Amino acid sequence: MKTPATVTLLAVMTLHSAFAATTLIVQPDNTGFRYAPAPASLPKGTQISNLLGDPANPGPFVIRLIFPAHTDIRPHTHSKPETVTILSGTIYHEHGPTLVRDQGTRLAAGGFVYLPEAMPHSLWTTDQPATIQVSGTGPFGLQYVNPADDPSRKQ
Predict the structure, then answer these.
(1) Which of 23, 64, 102, 143 has the most crowded Cβ, counting Cβ within 10 A?
(2) DSSP output for 4-65
(3) Dmax of the chain from CA atoms?
């Protein structure tokens, strides 16, 4: 029979092993991960790096996206809440089912946005690229308010 102390020790060791197996360290110079072309549902030229988890599967995930200059991500929603942190450059964000540029909020490096599930919003860059980090829980999907805005339908 195991004593309560043994059970506690085993639980701590199991928990430590679970976290140790998922430890991730990312340096500011992006050492340790690579970018690849983003899925077709994002504008052409967008790059993605999957840091943790998989947005398509259940569980937490963290991705980074690089949007080229003059990129529009037309009004869309997500199936789960998300957080967005701007890492470099400037991006504009607007809530609502239409993109109205003069109502967007300018977000520079360090800016942060929390979006509940199914909140319609748009993002765009102007004359410089921007890098963002998106965190959430999968499965995480992107659905355009107007299906004709989905870049994957134009290819």
Answers:
(1) 64
(2) HHHHHHHHHHHHHHHHHTT-----TT-TT---EEPPTTS-TT-EEEEEES-TTSSEEEEEEE
(3) 69
**Would you state the torsion angle of the CA atoms of residues 124, 126, 128, 130, taken in this order, to the nearest 10 degrees?**
-10
Q: What does the pLDDT average to over 12-35?
A: 56
Span 98-110, pLDDT tens digits: 999 888 999 999 9
The domain spans of the chain are 29-154
The domain at 29-154 falls in which architecture? Answer: Sandwich (2.60)
* Sequence letter at residue 98: T
Among 56, 102, 66, CA closest to 86: 66
